[in-house]
């Protein structure tokens, strides 16, 4: 079902939407631990994508429990929805991204300051779950990174291995 989130590992929900016209996918993820959640690459602002991601997110958590939004690189299909979600998440929610990506992120119109992430930085949230951020410069864009969840040994690869295909199997 296109409106159901998919739990790919314990507490990790894929909220993706297939862009059939352009043969690629929007790939937002929610990582939930205890009473907190981290939104990784929240997706496109185009209504036909944003509304599906929003509905999927609401099925798994109260949006006010999202305490961090992480942007792995600045492309619109990954993060143009930031200012839309900014209005719905926790008032204390932090937005974080690599320094190089922030140059373009500022054009999306978020109100909150963007926290800089660098190679090896970590984020601990919820009941002690830790995400580690690893820079992979020029593996798509100079300011691209991946995120590693040590609890489930999951790597969120962003668009590092992206391509154009109508196939949307996880």
Topology:
Layout: E1 6-9, E2 12-14, E3 17-19, E4 24-26, E5 29-33, E6 36-40, H1 47-60, E7 66-70, H2 76-79, H3 82-86, E8 94-98, H4 99-105, E9 114-117, E10 122-125, E11 129-135, E12 145-149, E13 154-156
Parallel strand pairs: 6-7, 7-8, 8-9
Antiparallel strand pairs: 1-2, 2-5, 3-4, 5-6, 10-11, 11-12, 12-13
Kindly, what is the distance between the CA atoms of the first and last residues, rounded to a whole number of angstroms?
A: 14 Å
Number of strands: 13
> What share of the residues lie within helices?
10-25%
Largest sheet: 7 strands, mixed
Radius of gyration: 14 Å
The overall pLDDT, averaged over residues, is 89
What does the model show?
The structure is a single chain. By secondary structure, this protein is of the alpha+beta class. It contains 4 helices and 13 strands. It has helices at about 45-60, 75-80, 80-85, 100-105, and strands spanning about 5-10, 10-15, 15-20, 25, 30-35, 35-40, 65-70, 95-100, 115, 120-125, 130-135, 145-150, 155. The strands form 3 sheets. It has a 7-stranded mixed beta sheet. Strand 12 and strand 13 form a beta hairpin. The protein is globular, with a radius of gyration of 14 Å. It starts with 5 loop residues before the first strand and ends in a 14-residue tail after the last strand.
């Amino acid at each position: 079902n296109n409106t159901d989130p998919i739990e790919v590992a314990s507490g990790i929900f894929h909220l993706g939407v297939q862009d059939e016209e352009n043969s690629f996918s929007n790939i937002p993820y929610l990582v939930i631990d205890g009473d907190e959640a981290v939104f990784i690459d929240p997706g496109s602002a185009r209504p036909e994508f944003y509304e599906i991601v929003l509905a999927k997110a609401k099925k798994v958590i109260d949006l006010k429990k999202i305490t961090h939004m992480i942007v792995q690189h600045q492309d619109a299909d990954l993060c143009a929805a930031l200012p839309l979600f900014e209005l719905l998440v926790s008032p204390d929610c932090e937005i974080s991204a690599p320094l190089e990506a922030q140059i373009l992120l500022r054009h999306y119109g978020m109100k909150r300051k963007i926290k800089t992430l660098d190679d090896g930085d970590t984020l601990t949230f919820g009941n002690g779950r830790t995400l580690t951020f690893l820079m992979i410069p020029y593996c798509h864009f100079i300011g691209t990174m991946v995120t590693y969840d040590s609890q489930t040994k999951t790597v969120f690869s962003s668009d590092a291995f992206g391509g154009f295909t109508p196939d949307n199997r996880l």
